[in-house]
């Protein structure tokens, strides 16, 4: 691959819909952000952290099958459905695999869709400095029909799309300024995300047991000084019995003699403290006045460094 990976542009959180006629809205998919790089001789799928995921998604490993341009960088999100809705837990069943045989089996069990919403490089030239409206026209002309690739639809009324997303119990929407250029590594109000529920990645600093098996996690975020702050106790969610059994088997090797949190959690009776290494994606409704999550729901265990679970997520 001759094309070098870039850090994708990110939206910022908002509680208000943007005003003006230069905005479009798109569904915020509960999946894995993925850029597809094709240089004419090969294809690489690379996530937002710069990790290659080409092997995990063989149905997307040839960009020429879904894009006309001989050289291209596409930006989008890989999703998997459960009950007709995007499921982060399901797509992580694919994203975390390393073994070829397991990947082949999972391809049949967990089909994915690449939801493409931007084009950054096309036919040997960067288009980052083109306004979003122009990039969308270019993208529409470049994508080919493909069973596992779709262009993300855009809508003119953010408020109406947000209501529809609420009715369908989706994650939220992203509003984008059609005059905006694309800045790699950027994160500002040219793109705004309005969430129906909040989400973050948190590290487990402790577990509780029931009948000899882990049944809940005590979760935390690190501040800028490296102190771990407790943000909630979560047991409900999408982890399977196999997931809980795996956590039970991992616990003895991660047990800590001292509590890792800066202050003792309210619900710490019977807790076994852990070295803060295991990271999980969590959805929740809002922050309580105590600094804990209201109604946290575990989505999946994710392969991220523990220190990426920072206190700054409370404002994103």
Give structural notes:
- It is built from 5 helices and 19 strands.
- The chain is an alpha+beta fold and 316 residues long.
- The chain has 2 domains: 10-195, D-amino Acid Aminotransferase, Chain A, domain 1, CATH 3.30.470; 198-315, Nucleic acid-binding proteins (OB fold (Dihydrolipoamide Acetyltransferase, E2P), Beta Barrel).
- The strands form 4 sheets. Strands 3, 4, 5, 6, 7, 8 and 9 form a 7-stranded mixed sheet that branches. Strands 12, 13, 14, 15, 16 and 19 form a 6-stranded antiparallel sheet that branches. Strands 1-11-10-2 form a 4-stranded mixed sheet.
- It is globular.
- The two termini are 33 Å apart.
- The model has no long low-confidence stretch (mean pLDDT 93).
Tally the beta strands. Answer: 19
Low-confidence stretches: none
Which fold name is given in CATH as the topology of the largest domain? D-amino Acid Aminotransferase, Chain A, domain 1
What is the first-to-last residue Cα distance? 33 Å
Please give the CATH architecture of the largest domain: 2-Layer Sandwich
Helix-residue proportion = 10-25%
